[in-house]
Write a structure and sequence with these properties.
- The protein has about 280 residues and is of the alpha/beta class.
- Helix content is about 35%, strand content about 15%.
- It contains 10 helices and 8 strands.
- Strand 1, helix 1 and strand 2 form a beta-alpha-beta unit.
- Strands 1, 2, 3, 4, 5, 6, 7 and 8 form an 8-stranded mixed beta sheet that branches.
Length: about 280
């Protein structure tokens, strides 16, 4: 089985619609794909309606968290999307995205960059606006050559000149909410240091004690040495090890299935989940 448990659509900051995403996943030969847009489940219905035969969809979301001033993301799989407490927290995070983006635009304007809210809103479309949309605007304006080049201290990285904080959930609270909604929690790209500061391994141990199920080890932002170290940490802490593409369409260079999750780990994730279940495709529209 070929299993990719971390992808994004236009419901957040990807460039493929949910329907196009699942079609591309099937064409790429994947057997299982997780749709994990940032702080939203809005793309699930469209993905399910278009799900091709032979492809199974794992519903999920990537939750924005912050621990001791360090931004981190938690992948939540197979939770009940209507569970009130987790739904309210996702909405709180999403509602803060617009004023945050507008704040970044104001900072960029003060730095002499003529980006506008109208430009960023056009790029975001119906998705939850975020830094990648502002970064895409910088690419359009010729300020940086690629989206990745916008995530530096000069521009949009954590603590950068145009960075603005947003509401982010305490990860221990996020674990409580995910578990309360019947979901499974995996720490996304925990050692992606090129994105900014990362939480220490001691914090990962504390999260494991609090109910964290796994860590995303095989990821484009982890070099081989980092993957080996994280694999050892997962063994030590009794955590599941996942691998995923973190696919964003044309917004990033990674491709579907670039990294994948072992079928036994996928089976354990589905066994632990009680809020929702993987959905096999029967041939979507």
């Amino acid at each position: 089985m070929r299993i990719d448990l971390h992808t994004h659509s236009t419901a957040s900051d990807g460039t493929d619609t949910p329907a196009d995403l699942v079609r591309k996943a099937a064409a790429a030969g994947l057997d299982v794909i997780a749709l994990t847009d940032h702080d939203t489940t809005r793309g699930h219905a469209e993905a399910l309606a278009a799900l091709p035969a032979g492809l199974t969809l794992v519903t999920g979301a990537e939750l924005s968290c912050r621990l001791d001033g360090v931004s981190m993301h938690v992948l939540a799989y197979l939770f009940d999307p209507e569970e009130p407490a987790l739904l309210a927290e996702r909405e709180l995070v999403r509602d803060d995205r617009v004023p945050r983006a507008q704040g970044m635009i104001s900072k960029l304007n003060a730095l002499g960059v003529p980006v506008t809210w109208e430009q960023v809103a056009r790029i975001a479309g119906d998705g939850s606006v975020g830094r990648p949309h502002v970064a895409t605007a910088l690419v359009e304006l010729g300020v940086v050559p690629t989206v990745s080049d916008a995530f530096t201290q000069e521009w949009l990285a954590d603590g950068g000149r145009a960075y603005v904080e947003k509401h982010e959930t305490d990860p221990f609270e996020a674990l409580r909410l995910i578990k309360g909604a019947g979901g499974v929690a995996v720490f996304a790209h925990p050692a992606a240091s090129k994105r900014g500061r990362t939480v220490p391994e001691s914090a990962i141990a504390e999260l494991a004690e609090a109910g964290l199920d796994g860590i995303e080890v095989d990821h484009m932002d982890h070099d081989p040495e980092t993957r080996a170290r994280l694999r050892g940490l997962a063994r030590e802490l009794g955590l599941l090890v996942t691998g995923s593409s973190d696919y964003h369409g044309s917004r990033k260079t990674c491709v579907l299935g670039e990294f994948m999750t072992d079928p036994e780990v996928y089976g354990e994730i589905t066994r632990r989940a009680t809020g929702a279940f993987p959905v096999p495709g029967t041939g979507g529209a």
